[in-house]
Amino acid sequence: MAHTFDVPDSTDWLNTALPKLAPVETALRCQVCKDFYNTPMITSCSHTFCSLCIRRCLASDGRCPTCRAAGQEVNLRRNGTVEELVETFQSTRADILKLARDAIFSERPKRRSTPPKRKLGDTDLEADDTSRSSSRRTTRSQTQRSQSAAAADPAPITIEDDEDSEEQQPDDGLVACPICNRRMKAESVFSHLDRCDGKPADPRSQSSTPKTPTQLQTIYPQRGIQSPRPPERLPKLNYSLMKENALRKKFSELGIPAWGPKPLLERRHTEWVNLWNANCDSSRPKTKKELLNELDLWERTQGGYASGGAGSSLIKNSSIGGGGGGGGGNTVMRKDFDGAGWAASHSTDFQQLISEAKRKRNAPQSVPAPVPASPAAEPETDVNADRSIEGRVNGALSDLPLRDSNGKVIDDEGGTEKDVDGPVHTSSLSPSRFKPALLSSSSKSMEERVFEQPDDPIEDR
Amino acid sequence: MSASVAAKRLFQEYRLLTNDPPEGIMAGPVNEDDLFSWEALIQGPEGTPFEGGVFPAILTFPKDYPLAPPTMKFTCDLWHPNVYPSGLVCISILHAPGDDPNHYEHASERWSPIQSVEKILISVMSMLAEPNDESPANVEAAKMWRERRKEYEELVRQNVRRGLGL
């Protein structure tokens, strides 16, 4: 997920010569995910969202997020105009942004314009960020340009411009159908022959002298040609009518993990249907393997592997109130918890537990096999929890009058909180003391820190 | 670390709030390694007894954000009809459309995935100025606000002064 590191947003325009482009960019972003529209779909109430976003919303409460009109997934239609707008805007965004920023810089010093290198070097962090991200963005937008060429043209091989056919000549191990000359993967030729209508494709698409592929060309055919027709959409299931075993059988037919209790199965299936059907809408569908990876990400962040167990919205309650024992437990439950490292550092504890369990096997209540939160492992946990508290005390936010919400679980479904008591502390804070703690670090360092994999899951709390 | 849908969206919102903050509002993750727990500061609206005060709160986001709303809890003393004695804020925008314990909120006022942290904080700011005493979270405060407005305002002002360490 390399693009996660690159988080442009509409506020990029605010301090440039073109601040009015900020609302333009906002209009090109989905209101649900706040990112640029990805496969925009329009609802029957005429609101547009990313395909995946609106499918998730409809699966969750069946209403349009904007106007709350009841909506159904079958009524979603592709919004090709918006898709084109977004893609063309994205492809030119970096250039406009650079121009708009440079315009500001050249206005300030009323001397002759200095070379761009110098300007960037002279300015502060932000300019540095610009140069860094704009180089990245250029690469990305180039990719997108080639992709949008594919998007604008649903059957890129048969209806091509002269220019394009020269440029997009694939040299990627695909073979041509002997009847229609359409290019495809070798293994799909036979199945294609069964339904080939024999209409020859544009002969230009089958030039016998392929050029050496550029980087873009290798990206293009992978995405554009691989799946000439989108796969079938998946139907929803009526979970209450299905027995658990039938559901598991269905899962293995679909090729998705079939473990866990029935509520988790239902949630996983819903997510899979959303991912799958949104992919069917896409002009550049992903492979099933990529979708499975996304399902796996869901599993780790919201599903069965998510911290807090299988519950739908258990909240990871970390730094704020999670002092003491609760802190240790949360560490283990973190989604990025280093299980292997933990197992290695506690192997003696586990061994001890195993041997104890074996000894007690004949007793009526046998000790279950090693669990991370087992008593033998706890001393270590507490030490770490204490250390992290100490770190917090030294931290900038330490003098915050925090009320203890220790290890508390907030039931999101009910929107209620379990403990509604406890002493209320008096605030003794002034705004100036607060500001640095919240907003001191630039968004650049934030980017780096947030998405870095921490070496030590305990320390990083 | 691969970022979940919720983490990405929260990061976007954080950037937006940092680069273009609305007046009187400040918010961001307490710890930048955990985007699901935010600290927010709200200035007391002018022309109200809360004027001059700065009120810290904690926002806690669910894993399926933005499908479900966060919870918001003031970490300071706040005497207000719509704030529980624990500090928990009770306001319609923080309630999912499905759960309406009191059946007085319009669906249009409640949480939807297109809402945002910024909109929540702006709503809370206007809640400070105009309490809703139809379903009070703090009954005593609501009664005082309705029947003994002067006393209510004086108590709020006292809390504000104390909060500033005066």
TrEMBL record, chain A:
Biased composition (Basic and acidic residues): 401-422
Keyword line: DNA damage, DNA repair, DNA-binding, Metal-binding, Nucleus, Transferase, Ubl conjugation pathway, Zinc, Zinc-finger
EC number: 2.3.2.27
Biased composition range(s): Basic residues: 109-118
Main location: nucleus
SMART domains per UniProt: RING, SAP, ZnF_Rad18
Transmembrane segment boundaries: none
Domain spans labelled UBZ4-type: 174-201
Any one Gene Ontology BP term: protein monoubiquitination
One MF annotation (Gene Ontology) recorded for this entry: ubiquitin protein ligase activity
Biased composition (Polar residues): 204-216
Residue stretches making up the SAP domain: 239-273
Similarity comment: family membership: Belongs to the RAD18 family.
PANTHER family listed in its UniProt record: E3 UBIQUITIN-PROTEIN LIGASE RAD18 (PTHR14134)
Name of this chain's protein: Postreplication repair E3 ubiquitin-protein ligase RAD18
UniProtKB/TrEMBL annotation, chain B:
Keyword DNA-binding: no
The UBC core domain, residue ranges: 5-165
Catalytic activity: S-ubiquitinyl-[E1 ubiquitin-activating enzyme]-L-cysteine + [E2 ubiquitin-conjugating enzyme]-L-cysteine = [E1 ubiquitin-activating enzyme]-L-cysteine + S-ubiquitinyl-[E2 ubiquitin-conjugating enzyme]-L-cysteine
Alphabetical GO biological process terms: chromatin organization; ERAD pathway; fungal-type cell wall organization; inner nuclear membrane-associated protein degradation pathway
Active site: C90 (glycyl thioester intermediate)
Keyword field: ATP-binding, Nucleotide-binding, Thioester bond, Transferase, Ubl conjugation pathway
UniProt xrefs under Gene3D superfamilies: Ubiquitin Conjugating Enzyme
MF-aspect GO terms: ATP binding; ubiquitin conjugating enzyme activity
GO cellular component, one term: Doa10p ubiquitin ligase complex
EC number of the protein: 2.3.2.23
PANTHER family (UniProt xref): UBIQUITIN-CONJUGATING ENZYME E2 (PTHR24067)
Family to which the UniProt record says this protein belongs: Belongs to the ubiquitin-conjugating enzyme family.
Protein name: Ubiquitin-conjugating enzyme E2 2
Organism, scientific name: Xylona heveae (strain CBS 132557 / TC161)
